[in-house]
């Protein structure tokens, strides 16, 4: 699809590779797609819009260039001049207040992905470091090339990861396993194969970045052919399973579905099943 | 064991393949063991009784015939005449109320398995679709033949799974992993091998249905030779671990065991251990 | 390091194999390192001190002798004379009260390891039975030799494990999986390979006990070279992920880091990174 | 209303004092409405039916005779012959199992009132002891005569209240206050005035039992004139507020109302408001 | 203070009646300060800014004109032309999706007040209906005139309150009391006196609107003279108490204060106390 | 009772005013019973012992001298020489770590009272400031003289209360009410009458300190005449109600009572009731 109906963004390419599928590409390849302040806010805005856009049923998140999904925070930029944290504070508690607000702000960007109503698939290649783990942990699925290099890098810059990795990695790979502790405490890089074995990615695609994008588009098209009421409800209810009891989750599911099974999708899906046709569904 | 002390059920064969072991077989093979209304209530009744029956220490849940554990909901029956959901409702909120009650009712059937005091082992073969996942996720262990075909089918009929899969699958395989999202969002079938790799089943038994039943009976006999106080307490406490904190679970465990270690089982088990004899335990 | 600055303990050898690294060795090899009353209290005292000792950044927990990490409770001792539980109680509720207090007391010992601010690595070999699972589940990482023999043994002595295994094993391997239910309900032994496959241990070290210790020391030295603010914060936040919602955990993380990123570690780590030097960090 | 469309129950009078209003009267006045086994099951059955009956919008729970709402458990009956708890058990853990099942069974009766979709108002007079507190704490509102005598009696029969009072009284009066601890620990009787002051009852009606019934019917008729979608949703959401976070409750509320504001009630209520007419609503 | 440093808002007057004190006045008196779409977004923007403004230590929320704090939603506007909910939807589940998004959007406005870092005091007079309860329940304190008329109005327009009242009123008055159920289920108006008796407002000020504003300003000045680190921390920690365990809240408190007691406020406050002087504190 | 069987403590008088009743008196009247380091540890030790002592059924906590229960922290001592917090730290994060440990340590002292198995009644008179609120909020009941002066003092020394008040006051008075926010944010003193009206104390005793002690002893004797199994179980279960759901609490209650109703107390209590005799109970 040559033209996108989306506006131009400064640091992200937003395109429509197939009907109902949107690809968001982090676009700062000359810096390994490392993040600095203005990128964050663009990213949140994009996902807030896609979440409610009825033309969108599945989102792909990828990185421009051959070398990285994202190398993480742009440390040079972070160290620069107008950094509010280098300024003088009357005391550590006041500095803590400003830092806490700043962390919340960044967490909200990542949470915009996690809260997006449509499934989001991270398509990973090359360096996927630090923030790259935060971002992809907030996605629903992760595909990667065999040469992807992962690293929960934060310990190496002297801090505990604070914008989502430590909260979402246990949810995404299942518990606070030996492996989660290992990669988070040591900040050691790990390979695609190790990511697959530990259930962080759901597939390692043969070939390079082009192939993983292709596979992502194919999967996204497949998901987009399904009932959007069913797909988006499934995402929402699964995410509510973590940190809550089975009993509370069952009750929540019943309340959710009491409205959502009143869709035309159920009839269409059943009928198409019996007639061996591909159903089409109204927008959502 | 030729004769069962259990009554005849219409849609389930309830037999006693070994002392303390009960096998519940879904018995509608001509319809791939698909479920329709009267089956649900029979099933709940059976598990409510087995839960408290002191002659029962382990339960096997399997499907009759060669082709399926269960193909899930009987969609044809569900689409039929006297379906309360086809009737007219004054407005969507009133329809939602009736639907919510109906979902709760079905959830209660599945929860009767999950709450059963005795360990329940699902023995799977052939089609294990939709409701087959709800049912087996509510069991404690899952064994399957190598030709079992799994599918979280609900998205394909236009709805989010609502009688237990989305609440229990994350508990049972560990978190809301890439794999859980993949199979729940896409409704794609998956194999026994994949189920094993992702910790949904604990073993794939070589051979066919007869072999998995045999293996199930063998395992159930083994569990039934253990202290029932120990086995049933272990099940109860493990299930409480999900969605609650370690601190709360430790406290609960201590309160539970304060009563339960006052059994005669502890002495018998220890003594038998020292004397290299097989202990016997009182009923529970 | 020949001399330890730690006092002599009766049942534990506490040594310093490398700077910032402390090894706690269970030292009752003639009894397969089985535990009895006086050992518990020593162990709690040791971990309470190490948790706050600024000279300590990583702790190794291992067992003396060639045959066992620990075979678990010393059943013979437990069965002996002055056992308070053999005394007469006016009624089962009063006995339950004394038992409950006793279970809490033992849980507190295991929890002292889990709550220790520094990462703790269990180095396992030989018999790792019963209490050995409780102890190692409370550690952050588990390495083992290929001949380690694991067993959640409690069902075999007639009780549900009550000092931590049932609460922490699901956290550590991810959920209440088929495998967790299998090994906890059946009390069947399992191998190092199985432990690795199910994410209970993060590596099986080639060779024997000497090699796993060597690997542990190497890993501990590596962790100790990292920012202790970052490492200890990561441990704390990850442990809070279990049984709580992502939203609560994100908020907790922000509050934690608002203080903790005000360390000198961040500057030192970043600068060293740019200068390709190894940073050193203040004690913590 | 002279005739009831409800069947005759042995221990309860179920009548219809006004359209949409049902009164359930505990009817064993010769024993101060004290409960014994067969009454429990009748009570559960009644509330399960009323919960879903579209002709019912508000339920009153009261006690027959002049002397008591209920004096609680019928201790004489409980002490009698065929009591399963006087039988011999092999050990205290097996007795505990049977007791636990029995407590769950009784809790389920009380919970049937708490889970009833329609608002339930307890109309109290005379002795409201023990079980009387369990029952009325499970209701939504409590009105009483000025001579009502309350008592959380269980401590006086040697046990902690276990069918609901200790779980629901804090919810109903707000926290584990000095007053809650006082009346629960001491088992001292308290007056209507004290119940009002501590927010247990919402009004003390002047006069005797007839007046409190009259007031209850009046209030129930008033509630029944309101939108049943609005009233029943309000009850459900308020009950979910206890023991959960504001954030979780807000999300649950939005999911609930997404279906429930699609009623015809909203238009009818608004229009009637503008036209100063009394709206009528479809059944629910 | 004659001039405000705040911009002009269309529906709110934002003024600075005293140092560190900001008053936000709902300004649509000709419509009893009833809310319609554009007002919501202005309100959220205002509180988001005030939350972080270091010149602000306490916020007052009041209503312009003599007759109302706010009469709630502007039902006429809500019923008007371009209402997205009157448009056609393919099915009730798609309408539910749009409604759910809309409810979340409105909840976020109210939550902006609840999450505001600075204490917010609602100053109430006249009609305080529907949304007026949602707004004031999200504040920290509520003062009112003796002629304030309160009403949880939503049931009267056919729906369960869904932007905060049902989640926050139980938190604010303590539990799901008889009184909370009464006023929420019946939508009956209640008086200032009743609001005081049930702990919804902390004082009823003698006189009219002018007096309650005066009292509010006086209290706000008093709070603003205290350490802002202490005041804002107290607000944050108290709000975290609801729906979480004491143990979790204690841990959170310790982590919070580890940073926040490193303020200069502690020294200044202590020294001023000893010297009987009024301390001044750095901005926050 | 002239002689106590308890050892002499330096800062506390521990006496036995009646059978089964122990009075712990804070004994530093010359400093208004203000706390400094050595007192904390003594206090924890005392409550840990009393919690398990079978001769103890009820505990009274009071302050020596005429002027104060306790004026709170001894600020002069806290400001003194060897204060670890005045020493130099490499950075605020390391100082935060030491502070966090210190706060946990003090919290554990207060929690020792809250966790004490026996009911604890705070008997308050004179200054009950700061720590006095933390201590008494951890008790089960609070009685006071009419001249007691209360104050949540911490805001006035520049910090949020961090050893328990903010976590337990909402539990104890019911929610995060207007009143809780008012007294915690403003640090304004409040009277006995206000404490009673807001459900913080359960009675204001006429007369002075002697009378409140007398009333406390009388109440404690009364509680001690009841079944200790029933009283201690009631305390435990009620405390678990806060921050957890009704469903979880009901389950916990059933598990607790399955052991605890197997006491001899039930028979004795019932029989004594029928025979109008005062029962005696075994120690616990």
From TrEMBL, chains A, B, C, D, E, F:
GO BP, one annotated term: fatty acid beta-oxidation
Coiled coil: none
UniProt-recorded Gene Ontology molecular function terms: delta(3,5)-delta(2,4)-dienoyl-CoA isomerase activity
Keyword Transmembrane helix annotated: no
Record-linked Pfam families: ECH_1
UniProt entry keywords in alphabetical sequence: Fatty acid metabolism, Isomerase, Lipid metabolism
Superkingdom of source: Eukaryota
Any one GO CC term of the record: mitochondrion
Pathway(s) of this molecule: Lipid metabolism; fatty acid beta-oxidation
InterPro entries in the cross-refs: ClpP/crotonase-like_dom_sf, Ech1-like, Enoyl-CoA_hydra/iso, Enoyl-CoA_hydra_C
Keyword Cell membrane: no
Family: Belongs to the enoyl-CoA hydratase/isomerase family.
Protein's UniProt name: Enoyl-CoA hydratase
Source organism of this protein record: Cladophialophora psammophila CBS 110553
């Amino acid at each position: 699809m040559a033209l996108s109906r989306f506006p131009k963004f400064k640091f992200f390419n937003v395109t429509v590779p197939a009907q109902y599928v949107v690809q968001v590409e982090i676009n700062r390849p000359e810096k390994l797609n490392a993040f600095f302040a203005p990128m964050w806010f663009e990213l949140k805005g994009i996902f807030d819009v896609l979440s409610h856009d009825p033309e969108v049923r599945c989102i792909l998140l990828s990185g421009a260039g051959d070398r990285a999904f994202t190398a993480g925070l742009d440390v040079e930029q972070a160290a620069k001049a107008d950094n509010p944290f280098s300024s003088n504070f009357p005391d550590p508690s006041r500095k803590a207040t400003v830092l806490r607000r700043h962390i919340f702000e960044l967490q909200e960007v990542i949470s915009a992905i996690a809260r997006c109503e449509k499934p989001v698939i991270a398509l990973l290649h090359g360096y996927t470091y630090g923030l790259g783990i935060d971002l992809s942990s907030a996605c629903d699925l992760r595909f990667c090339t065999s040469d992807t290099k992962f690293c929960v890098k934060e310990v190496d810059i002297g801090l505990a990861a604070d914008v989502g990795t430590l909260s979402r990695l246990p949810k995404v790979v299942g518990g606070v396993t030996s492996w989660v502790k290992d990669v988070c405490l040591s900040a050691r890089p790990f390979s695609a194969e190790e990511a697959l074995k530990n259930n962080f990615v759901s597939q390692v695609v043969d070939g390079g970045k082009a192939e993983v994008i292709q596979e992502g588009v194919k999967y996204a098209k497949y998901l987009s052919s399904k009932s959007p009421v069913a797909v988006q409800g499934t995402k929402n209810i699964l995410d509510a399973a973590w940190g809550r009891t089975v009993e509370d989750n069952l009750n929540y599911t019943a309340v959710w579905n009491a409205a959502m099974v009143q869709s035309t999708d159920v009839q269409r899906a059943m009928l198409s099943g019996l007639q061996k046709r591909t159903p089409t569904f109204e927008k959502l």
